[in-house]
Amino acid sequence: MEPDIIGQAAGLFAVTNVDDILILALFFAQGAGHHRSVVRITLGQYLGFTAILAVAVAAAFGATLLPESAVPYLGLLPLALGLKAAWQAWKDHRDGENEHEKETKAGGPGAFEVAAVTLANGGDNIGVYVPVFATAGAAAMSVYTVVFLILVGVWCAAGRCFATRPVIARTLGRWGHVLLPVVLIGIGLLILIEGGAVGL
Q1: Distance, CA of 81 to CA of 8 (rounded, Å)
Q2: CA-CA distances (angstroms) from residue 12 to 46, 117, 133, 147, 178?
């Protein structure tokens, strides 16, 4: 039975986190050339996903750490980070700062920025994980948790791999400063609108 659970856990993770690979690739591209950015992005991804798991596990046991009505407002996190990134890109363009100078100065996103985006983007995952965890039982839930945490590392490696492929790296290097804010703002608005926040 355990191999079945491992397969189910891997499938559930892949289906609910497929969009994270693009976001991770953008983050890794932003931090290209900075060794510590890999550690910060990976740490941030683990922090954000651990928070998602903690909320889902607690809810499966009947505790509500995050009221359902609050989930749509998680969209404010990537929206704010996207607006900040857009402002920075506009400022750099206005000041005539070249890509190398930007990369040297920025060094990629911080761990808490990545964690905030991961948590906000995975807010809807909680709604999927809770019924699965609640019906799986404690032993199976532990398997799900371990598989999910292993796959977070695989996802980080895949995101970094995409960001370092020559063609993709060149594209992200040239357009990443535009794509990142667009993706973050899009995710934020999507979460707010789909969740029905403030009557949107």
Answers
A1: 33
A2: 17, 20, 12, 10, 31
Residue 22 · residue 176 · CB < 8 Å: no
Q: Which two tokens stand for residue 39?
A: 């550690």
- What is the Cα–Cα distance from 32 to 59, expressed in whole angstroms? 38
Q: Measured between alpha carbons, how far is 115 from 110 in angstroms, rounded to an integer?
A: 9
Q: Among 112, 121, 133, 107, which residue's Cα sits nearest to residue 53? A: 133
Structure tokens at 59: 């809810």
CA dist., res. 147 & res. 185, Å (int):
30
Q: pLDDT for 51-101, tens place per residue?
A: 999 988 988 887 655 566 766 777 777 788 778 878 877 777 777 654 444
Count of residues for the chain? Answer: 200
**CB contact at 8 A, 187 and 121:** yes
Residue 154 DSSP class? H
Q: Which of 7, 162, 3, 23 is nearest to 85 (CA)?
A: 23
- The reported pTM is 0.74
Token pair listed for 154: 């695989």
* 53 closest CA partner among 128, 111, 139, 2: 128
pLDDT tens by residue, 125-145: 887 888 888 888 888 899 999
